[in-house]
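pasting for ref. prot 1 ->
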Amino acid sequence: MTLIQENLLPFSPEVVWRVLSDIESWPVWVPTITSAKALDTPRMLIGHRFVLSQPLQPATVWRVTRVEANRSFQWQTERHAGFEAGHTVIPIPGGATVESWLRPQGRMQVIWPILRPILRRAISAEMRGLAKRCRVMS
């Protein structure tokens, strides 16, 4: 039930991580996020929470559950019917591969077959935004 997407980017892993882990800047480059705010501090640390707003959805609190410094993070929504997700930056010659994944939790699994193609398109748009933002930041 996990949706996984990998993208090759011609940017250094450091640039990709800097962009990807700056959650509060996501509304600038992620077309599916209208606002992002840290509830604790903006640093990517286990237990820290971020509120993300998206069109046609209530604001959602995401709590960081795992971090590998400068490489990956995982987080999950604080709703019973929600998601768990993660992002990993993998160094490769000449750039980085970004692996993003999303997994439904609780009652969200019931409507997963309907949501999956919609979310696949959303993640593709997010990855295009990441590439554009990395180009600006490098």
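and prot 2 ->
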Amino acid sequence: MPFTRISCRQDCSDDEIDRISAILHQALVSEFAVPEKDRFQIFERVPERLRVFDSHYLSAGRTQNFLLFQITAGKMRTREQKQNFYRALSDGLQRELGVSPADVMVVIQFTQAEDWSFSAGTLFTPAVAVLPASPASGGK
């Protein structure tokens, strides 16, 4: 149940955002054990003057193409899962969009299940998660 906020440059196109979204989601599904339909992302196009970052801090050199992925996840992942996810995301962005790996930064924060309410003001409890009724059941 991750939620991701992606900060990108202001002139990032709708097509680029769609592709970043797809690459991110594929990496989450394949490497972070996220269900296919569990997709919650917010993109923020940030003007250059509001994007303050050091070009070389722990990086080979960030450019104005710098992407920041802030992920809030409800389930802890292993060190190996995290590393595999970072690599899949970075490799996918480079392969599909030509984004330099130096321009990809990821920050992950983990929470407890009770820190989430997915709708209706209801505390999320994994053991009693309610899925929407299928149309075939008439909503019952």
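Residues 3-114 form a domain with the Macrophage Migration Inhibitory Factor fold (CATH 3.30.429.10).
The chain has two helices and four strands.
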